[in-house]
Amino acid sequence: MAPQIPTHDLNDGATLPAIGFGTYPMKGRECVDSVLSALEAGYRLIDTAVNYSNEEEVGEAIRTSSVPRDEIFLTSKLPGRHHAYDDAKAGVRGSLDRLGLDYLDLHLIHWPNPSVDKFAEAWRALVDLREEGLIRSIGVSNFTEAHLTRVIDETGVTPVVNQIELHPYFPQAEMRKVNDRLGVLTESWSPLGKRQAPFSEPPVASAAEAHGVTPGQVILRWQVQLGAVPIPKSATPERQRQNLDVFGFELTDAEMEAITALGRPDGRLFGGDPDIHEEM
Ligand SMILES: NC(=O)c1ccc[n+]([C@@H]2O[C@H](COP(=O)([O-])OP(=O)(O)OC[C@H]3O[C@@H](n4cnc5c(N)ncnc54)[C@H](OP(=O)(O)O)[C@@H]3O)[C@@H](O)[C@H]2O)c1
After folding, report:
1. Radius of gyration of the chain from Cα atoms?
2. Which residues form the pocket of ligand 1, taking CB atoms under 6 Å from any ligand atom?
3. What is the mean pLDDT of each run of 10 residues along the chain (280 residues)?
4. 43 is an active site residue
5. How far apart are alpha carbons 235 and 257 in whole angstroms?
């Protein structure tokens, strides 16, 4: 039987599973099979994006899975080239066409691309698409406090989530506080630290031993106890199950603090700075 996953209440009344499944950079049969096995393992939050070029595969898995559509919380993301109002509206219809579905549970502005300065226009389009029923909840990704404040001030609508880079080498204490203060739930991308996965760091390895779990489970449990929603990617069914199984143990305050203390000024992954990175 699939495990029961706790949920978070979003600021618009919807509920989001406390852990999700990332799909980048999977494509083709690997992507379809991985999303199917993730759904079978019990994941209900699935994360894709226009720029992952795998919406067709993610949609195929969702449509062919035995899990009912209304039990799945599907997220996609608007790319920088679609920030102009009409492009954003057409872009979301394109996502739905590729997915073969008639609504998205959540759509995020993927990057603010501040030099282009059209993210507030994109946000207005998402607000209107939500009114039209094509998207149930709307949020952002890689937004700083300034970007968040701007869209909230201009529309009166607060994003439900801000999906940001967050892992032990980059724990994002300040941005988590900003998100909390504004009523925005933090989602964590590259939650395991991707290339620099800090599995062998002493605070992670010793907590794994103490709790009889794997280092990956320690890091994902750390995310959950921070109040962030991690979306680990794995193409391996065994790791998918393992990554989901993080609700049966609890890290101590000392373990939490020691893992957070792994954070370092250069801990951000390459290309993760929202003020500089432009993704079209
Ligand atoms: N909003 C954004 O700008 C943004 C940016 C980057 C990513 N994302 C999203 O975040 C998701 C997750 O981030 P990510 O894929 O960069 O990094 P991640 O989930 O931190 O790490 C994925 C890597 O860890 C491996 N892995 C997974 N579980 C493991 C385990 N239990 N033990 C050992 N290795 C394990 C995976 O390999 P295997 O597949 O071989 O298991 C893969 O190589 C992406 O898929 C995407 O949906 C969003």
Report:
1. 18
2. 22-24, 47, 110, 141-142, 163, 189-194, 216, 231-236, 239, 242-243
3. 89 98 98 98 98 98 98 98 98 98 98 96 98 98 98 98 98 98 98 87 98 97 98 98 98 98 93 88
4. no
5. 30
